[in-house]
Design a protein that fits this description.
two-stranded antiparallel sheet; about 45% helix; seven-stranded mixed beta sheet; about 325 residues; alpha+beta; 11 strands
């Protein structure tokens, strides 16, 4: 039996899902593959940022959520900072780097220990609407491998120094989600699978039995969002905003194309003028060459006349000498 859930590709639905602590812990812990004891949202004053596309000021927005997490480890627990971003396209790598850099320098991402201030390890979770050119892999995990440089042996011991200076990353390529689910994580993330869209793109049709029992809170939360009037209203606002951005990009592209055409016509005109100028120069050079040729001919005739006169003089002298 199919049920309808709100489409979490929308920022408002994603936010509604992650505001539920139980659902948020399930999503995050399933992606990172570690048990989260506590997950606390951090102040979300930078949840949305405008990003330029093709020099257009109003383009797409990137939705951000930051969390402090207490994660279970064999020795007890560790604290980490979790940075979560959702974007339509990974268009501006510098922007992602800048925000990550801000997290490294943010004093709130540190804790005091008997040995001094310690920087929390950073976990980065990116939900991207378009793939990175790596296909058939909905979830990409990027982690630090520590090796003995002499033997290439992998070192498994943990170091606060290393963890404080290196972050772990998980990239969810929403466009790569397929009907085939290879593990429980891909089963969970199928709530983002856009091939399940209804005629109304706000809604996804899924089968609750396709989800392990432990993930049912996520499904129920999204099912609740589908019938929430405020969420529905905000999805429509996002649709209008996206349409506006598309119009802006289309207008910007049209203007850029028009400018390119004008520049091309200008270049063609300049090229014709240069060709005309070169033709005139060629004509002038040809006329000069003709003039020089005529001068050379005249000189040759003079030389011939002079030679003939010299012969006549020589003949005259010879006759007088007799």
């Amino acid at each position: 039996m199919e049920i309808q859930i709100a489409n979490p590709i929308y920022d408002v639905v994603f936010k509604y899902l992650m505001e539920d602590n139980t659902a948020a812990k399930l999503v995050v812990s399933s992606i990172i593959g570690e048990e989260i004891i506590e997950l606390e949202p951090k102040p979300q004053e930078r949840t949305r940022e405008k990003v330029k596309i093709e020099n257009n000021e109003s383009s797409i927005t990137v939705y951000r959520l930051d969390f402090s997490a207490k994660i279970k480890v064999p020795s007890g627990h560790k604290l980490v900072h979790i940075e979560m971003q959702k974007a339509s396209v990974p268009s501006d790598i510098i922007r992602f780097r800048r925000y990550l850099g801000e997290q490294y320098t943010d004093p709130s991402n540190t804790i005091s220990t008997p040995d001094g201030v310690k920087g929390l390890q950073i976990y980065c979770l990116y939900f991207l609407g378009q793939d990175l050119g790596i296909y058939d892999a909905p979830v990409l995990e990027v982690d630090t491998t520590v090796k003995d440089a002499a033997t290439a042996e992998i070192i498994t011991e943990k170091s606060d120094f290393i963890e404080s200076l290196h972050h772990k990353t998980w990239i969810i390529q929403i466009s790569c989600l397929k009907e085939r689910r290879r593990n429980e994580l891909e089963q969970l993330l199928s709530v983002f699978d856009q091939s399940n869209r209804d005629k109304d793109w706000h809604i996804l049709n899924i089968k609750e039995k396709d989800f392990p029992e432990k993930y049912r809170p996520v499904v129920r939360r999204l099912k609740s969002a589908a019938s929430n009037p405020s969420v529905k209203r905000q999805m429509k606002v996002e649709d209008e905003f996206i349409m506006y951005l598309k119009d802006c990009v289309r207008v910007a592209r049209g203007k850029a194309l028009e400018e390119s055409k004008k520049e091309l016509e200008k270049n063609k005109k300049t090229l014709k003028e240069k060709e005309k100028l070169l033709a005139e120069k060629d004509k002038t050079l040809a006329e000069k060459d003709k003039t020089l040729a005529e001068k050379d001919k005249t000189l040759a005739e003079k030389d011939k006349t002079l030679a003939e006169k010299e012969i006549e003089i020589a003949e005259l002298k010879r006759q007088l000498g007799k």
